[in-house]
Design brief:
By secondary structure, the chain is mostly helical. It contains 22 helices and four strands. The strands form two sheets. It has a two-stranded antiparallel ribbon.
Length: 481
């Protein structure tokens, strides 16, 4: 590894570190500075931006944002709240299940902001230390990303894997990731069940209650959506959204149902076509248009790609919600789901492009350097995924940036499927919005970011969940594939 290669890697890591400090759009934008230095300063060939994944995120987030604007998200939260309030003594196990499946349905973990105050309120009213359910519920809201059929991480994994000759579908990924992540979450919930002192034995909490203002702040408010009337149009929007998910899963499971098209390709020696007007159409453009002429050949039928299926179905569902469910597009644009999704688009755009530029220029060198390690310990790529995720707060970006490198190193597809849960590591440094919001929602003050930064309320459940999930996923993948 040359000094120049190390210097350029430090530039990549530095851009990611600085971007993570600013957060939000800065993560993708500051990656652009690193990209500019590599391309204009060092003359590296630019990589390829992950346009397919970005288009999918835009379509899915638009659909989820429209559903939120219709009021459908409130209905889902209301259903979850009813279950939690019916079984308050089990909230440490039920809360993460609720946040997990909300993320699985919507494809983003930012849907939990409405539910988290409710979880805290139920725990306080039951006398349960809120840190217990809140910490693991925040982790669960992000773990669900690798289990969602419309999440960028899952779609990118399938797309990149198919391009590298590991033929796998979205349902097959979910058959591994969902049971594995549920095992990890339940292990984290079990470890959190008796975590910390009970509220009646916690001297810091009891000291707060002696202050009338603090007592009123902690117990005076009650977060709930149960008293909110949900219109039928909002429920219909949820049904449309669930129907869209069902269609996507159906096409992914049964690709033979998809329409097929003739694949036309220009062959060597094909000539361009010059029209009477003087306009020249290249052979390649003619092939894309489906024109079969001299110099062109047909290569059978090819089915519609799943990345296009997801985009078509999602934007169609969004349109149906606007037309039939009174969903206001302006309200969707101002909602947290759409806004956080667009932030993810910029992050993935900048981060993945920067990473691909660096790795694509040094692929052969890395293959030589890491060949022996990968051959002996292929599972060690999970540690790389986790470490990169600590730096970049996006599981989709980790998959897009690192999975092509992993395949180029010769790591088998089943191994990479088995370590997929390891792409979630950004709980390690507690700067992610859902974690920070959870700390603020806990009025008891038991959910904390520690004095030494890493001794925070999300570290223990996060490490247990990711470790167990990755281990179970690895075993399942090896057994099945």
């Amino acid at each position: 590894m040359s000094i120049l290669m190390i210097l350029q890697l430090l530039i990549v890591l530095g851009a990611l570190w600085v971007g993570s400090r600013y957060g939000s759009l800065a993560l993708g934008a500051i990656s652009g500075i690193g990209l500019a230095i590599l391309v204009f300063g060092f003359g590296l060939k630019p990589g390829t931006p992950p346009t397919d994944v970005i288009y999918i995120i835009i379509a899915a987030v638009t659909c989820a944002g429209i559903m939120q604007a219709s009021g459908g998200m409130d209905w889902l939260i209301q259903i979850a709240e009813k279950m939690l309030r019916k079984h308050p003594d089990r909230i440490t196990f039920l809360a993460p299940l609720c946040t997990f499946f909300l993320t699985v349905l919507v494809g983003t973990g930012h849907v939990v902001y409405t539910l988290m105050p409710i979880i805290c309120d139920i725990a306080l009213k039951k006398g349960i230390r809120p840190e217990r359910p809140c910490g693991v519920a925040s982790i669960a809201s992000q773990v669900g990303i690798t289990c969602s059929p419309i999440a960028a991480a899952v779609v990118a994994f399938v797309t990149i894997s198919n391009a590298n000759h590991f033929d796998i579908t979205i349902p097959q990924v979910l058959m591994i990731s969902i049971p594995a992540c549920l095992c990890g979450l339940m292990a984290a919930a079990a470890a959190s069940y008796k975590r910390g002192l009970d509220l009646d034995k916690d001297p810091q909490f009891q000291a707060k209650l002696k202050d009338p203002e603090q007592y009123k702040y902690i117990y005076g408010n009650s977060a709930t959506l149960l008293d909110k009337e949900i219109p039928q149009s909002a429920k219909n929007a949820v049904f449309i959204f669930l129907g869209a998910l069902a269609v996507i899963v159906m096409f992914a499971a049964f690709p033979d149902l998809l329409p097929e098209y003739k694949q036309v390709q220009a062959i060597k020696g094909a000539e361009d076509l010059t029209l009477a007007s003087g306009v020249t159409i290249t052979a390649k453009e003619l092939a894309k248009a489906g024109v079969v002429a001299s110099g062109f050949t047909e290569h059978g039928m090819v089915g519609l790609k799943m990345n296009l299926v997801i985009q078509i179905v999602m934007i169609t569902a969004a349109a149906l919600m606007i037309i039939f469910c009174k969903a206001a597009p302006k309200k969707a644009v101002s909602g947290p789901v759409w806004q956080s999704g667009m932030v993810a688009v910029v992050a993935i755009y900048g981060i993945a492009w920067l990473a691909d530029t660096y790795f694509s220029n040094y692929m052969s060198t890395m293959q030589v350097m890491l060949a022996d390690i990968v051959k002996e310990y292929p599972w060690a790529i999970a540690l790389v995924f986790f470490a990169v995720s600590v730096l970049i707060n996006s599981q989709g970006a980790v998959v897009v940036a690192m999975l092509p490198l992993a395949y180029s190193l010769g790591i088998a597809g089943p191994v990479l499927l088995g370590v997929l849960p390891s792409v979630y590591g950004y709980f390690f440094i507690p700067n992610y919005p859902s974690d920070i919001a959870t700390v603020n929602f806990d009025r008891s003050g038991t959910t904390v970011i520690g004095k030494y930064l890493l001794n925070h309320s999300f570290m223990m459940p996060g490490l247990i969940c990711v470790s167990v999930s990755t281990l179970v996923a690895y075993v399942l993948s090896m057994l099945i594939y």
